Amino acid sequence: MLTLRHLSKSYVPGKPVLQDIDLDIAARGITAVIGPSGTGKSTLIRCINRLVEPTAGEILFDGADLARLSGAALRHARRHIGMVFQEYNLVERLTVMENLLCGRLGYVGAWKAWRRKFPPEDIRRAFELLDVVGLAGFAHRRADALSGGQRQRVGIARAVMQEPKLLLADEPTSSLDPKTSVEIMQLLADVARSRGIPVLINMHAVALGKRFADRIVGMSGGRIVFDGPPANLSDDVLKQIYGGEDWLDE
Amino acid sequence: MSSPIRALPPADDPFPRAWWPRVTMVLVAVYVVYACAQLDVSWERVQTGLANAAHFFGRLFPPNFTRWELLLKGLLESLQIAVLASTLGIALALPLGLLGARNLMPAWVSWPARAIVVVARSLHPVIVAILFVKAVGFGALAGILALTVASVGFIGKLFTEAIEEISLKQVEAVRATGAPFFSVLGYGVLPQVFSRFIGFATYQLDSNLRNSTMVGIVGAGGIGGTLFAAFQRFDYDFVCAILIAIISLIMLGELFATAVRAIFIGNATLADLFRRGAGGRRDRLVEDD
Amino acid sequence: MSAASLAGIDREWRRFTPAQRVARFAVYFVIVAAIVAAAQTIEIIPEFLADAPEQVADLLSRMWPVDWGDYADDVHGALVETLHIASLGTLLALVMAVPVGILAAHNLVRSTPLNLFAKLILVSSRSVNSLVWALLFVGIFGPGALAGTLAIAFRSIGFVGKLVGEALEEAQPGPIEALTATGAPWRSILLYGYWPQVKPAFWSIALFRWDINVRESAVLGLVGAGGIGMALDAALNLFQWPKVALILIAILAIVIVAEVVVTQIRKRMI
Lengths: 250, 289, 270
Prior knowledge:
The structure holds three protein chains of three kinds. By secondary structure, chain B is mainly α.
């Protein structure tokens, strides 16, 4: 589904944040990337859909190298990759329904989109998705009137509206309280599994990753140091990834 | 938590919108058509005008700087007018603004002060200039007085607002130390309003510089007079030179204003100015003209 | 108010570093020098200044009683024309300023030469006074309200464009990032990502500028660009002081009315 080969990124020349990453993501399942702050997890996720420009390497997705695309070709490719953000990134002044339909902006021409002339199946699908994420009846609320958890539900729905082949999530629960975090992770997992969409999540809380992911990728110092099922994630491995012991006693 | 999935009823509008933005748009469109008709703005007039414009621009370029002494004299006079009007305006506006502050002054003091400021603001500087020309004759004095009035109107209002927004607790604290009135002002009030004052004082300097280039059109001194005369003589290439000079002067003025703001608000040093270029901090002030 | 002192730390309380002092001194110096130079070289004839109170009294006496009767014939029509000039000019400026504002926003258009070019347009528009713009347009289109409307429009582009550009630069990048990630074309990103964020500021700017333009439109007639300024010019040339007084009062009234209208609409918007 997605293959990263020799992916590297340096924001400052000589100080690489990502070093020669090789990764294969299968067409199903949830993969969680964990690691200490600043180790390039977020950069990795954002390189995939080119929100951040990689310095070197290949990003093979859907028969094309995303690292080489530009212009309309890049936009078309992005349509097939949905993204959920830590800060939700909704357009505050628009309604929930309008935010959902933002997921279709890559498919509907700009003029039609401005006049809100989306195809009827998109509208129907939007209402269905609202039910699925638990926000039935919220269609006409303004996004800035929602709580954090509700906003992330809209964010997930928006990403799914793209009918993506891959879902990326950049610390989707870091701005949420523990209970809501679990709910959102559950929702994300359910939605992705029921629609057969693979998910690549950048996770901050290891416990959540262990609970919901099928596969854990551990990063440290810009490299992958662990790749396997959550069961293999022993304390020793975690120490190796995160360094230090104190935080393990939480 | 999720309700049973329902079929979308045909009438369910996914984008219910308030009706009044649409209505307003229609009204605006109707107004535009109406107003154009009232003003005798027709497409053919625009077209003839555009043909004229090409001809006109041809005569503007290349700009003619041969009479640069006259140009310089006019520019200098405009600069003088701006500097003196700003100084006088600030000097008058500060006490007046202070008197108009409702949180510091009783009503019988603040209302007349505010009224004076309002009247000073409402009349366009050009109109005031005409009146002063009648009162003190042609020349730069009329311009200075007219722009002083405009400055008082602008700075007075903003200074009053700034004072009314200060935290009185700080003033109270200083007063409680037994400090005399002016010390209370200096340590309690002024520190809170100083940076905003710099902001709009520098803005007013720029504004006066812009206006000083124009009051000459009605005889109140400065390069406006030279410009108007050149225009009436159809000396369009000289007009172009004057315009370029005016724009340059104003740009320099804006650079100076940005530097002053950086130094007094941002505590910059001279080296900082050159390092940053004139980019600087964006001022929150909303312009007045 | 002295700084707490700890062993080894400089005990001298300094408000500004020496380098900052130099900068502040430089500004003071420039300002004082400018004022002194200006005061010395300005040509003021003292007799005129002494004469002034007498002249003002004379002027006021000639203006009174105000000629209210003339309102219906000349003044009213001209006032309405002034309002049209201000409104049409503002609308035209809004349309023209938005693209320039977009070009000037460095987070939207990443080409520095384009940003600078747009900023140059905006600065020029602001630096040339509306009266001067009016002169130019009277030269091109002939006297009348068309010249006045265009003058207002071109003058306002700088104001509106600058503030719109700043509002765009201050837009939250998060939603924009999200829309980019969905593969939306740039026009949709503008309309769905930037416009909703900029909308309240935009209308506020538009209203503010209209208010200022009413004031500006009133004087454009002095150079022949239509509106009540032409009636004023005519009355001044014919020394009809009571009529001048009437016109001045009318201008004052319309400016105050415009400010009240704008304040009321603003209250409703928030």
